[in-house]
């Protein structure tokens, strides 16, 4: 039954069933593209600073991704969106590869273009939602959010329209230079805005920008993720267009350094992870993600790696590059060792002793086994694993968070085995993590007394709604990218088929509610821009997997130290 449904869907979808189609042939039959200008950025990898250049590992999964691409690695792959535009508003990749586009694609592009906002006659971003229903309050949905623009930026780059992305990068960089104050406190120089708005001055007849660095946000929390996403978009722009000049400008180099200086500053932390307040990322309301949330750590890791290949090794950049390499080594070890959870690790934690005092302690964070929630024992399959939501002294948040785990795969924070285990978990627990509308932002929902304590009785984050176990279509592009990288295209196709069945019919909602994601969210906006763009990016990546190169990083392999003969051997 499922196989028949998959075959039927493939007549409208972007690729044939992976069991019947060799993906490497897709690349081998594509016209060769000169990538010399493009690759020079990423050829300067960790190898110059004691780590080796990017290289894909080998393993048992086969197909694309970690386990041998067959041609070039994603890291060196040129995403050829820059030179082609589509006809009739459909993606350039559909035209180029002669795939029959899904009927929703044209509708999605029209909706995405309606969300474009201009500043002095230049497109600079997309607003969060274009919901004209009478019941919808504008609030801040008419602003350009940095994190919301990410899938829009990728869609435009994949469709050969880099101008809006370039303008966005430059305008947000100018906003970074503003003095940022909340009450009487001045934010760090590197802070990027959560969002900005274009205001028309009717008297002077000019546009002006108004930025929000957290002073208008619910809870007054500055966005930690904005700077990381900005760096990731800059690298995607460079990979897509082959244009290194933007990233190499003094202004962009300074912007990268300011972000890096802010997050690499020394303090009282004993861990390489970043300490954050609740509500500092996509989950921008109180949801118990304070401390060291997986979303921020994965984005931090990815931004560090992107910054490393874009920074110039000059007098100002070299010192930061050395600090990045040191931090990357510590961060990857910490995350892979202490945030990773699978059946064996769960069993080990279940048997932990507490109150261990010495360097030989096994339970290094003094996590009490009694704090393991009951749901986890049934949820954890024997095959599969994931990065938990948070780890700090005497506290482990065992919830699953989709964004952090998908970014961990794309950034190669997850080892090849861990990446495969994350995909195994999604397959094994499909109803819990995907349900009827991809993708659940976290699992499980918190409810009852715990909901009262953790969220402060937040009426928007009730169980299985919004950030508390709601289903967010925007996450479809991240799931699809992770599937392509790990060679698990059936998972991506199944998720896209679910989304296509309802998204346009429901008016492209912001999120869905319910344990299976069956109901349009209680307060969900319609025509939510990143729901639209996330769908387009997922479709275009599946049609042309080389697009993954602009958002994926291959695993870095440490080199063997150079052995030099000491003086005692030559004496």
From TrEMBL:
Key words of the record: Carbohydrate metabolism, Glycosidase, Hydrolase
Keyword flag Hydrolase: yes
SUPFAM superfamilies for the chain: Six-hairpin glycosidases
Any one biological process term the GO annotation gives: sucrose catabolic process
Function: Invertase that cleaves sucrose into glucose and fructose.
Entry's family note: Belongs to the glycosyl hydrolase 100 family.
Record protein name field: Alkaline/neutral invertase
Highest classification ranks of the organism: Eukaryota, Viridiplantae, Streptophyta, Embryophyta, Tracheophyta
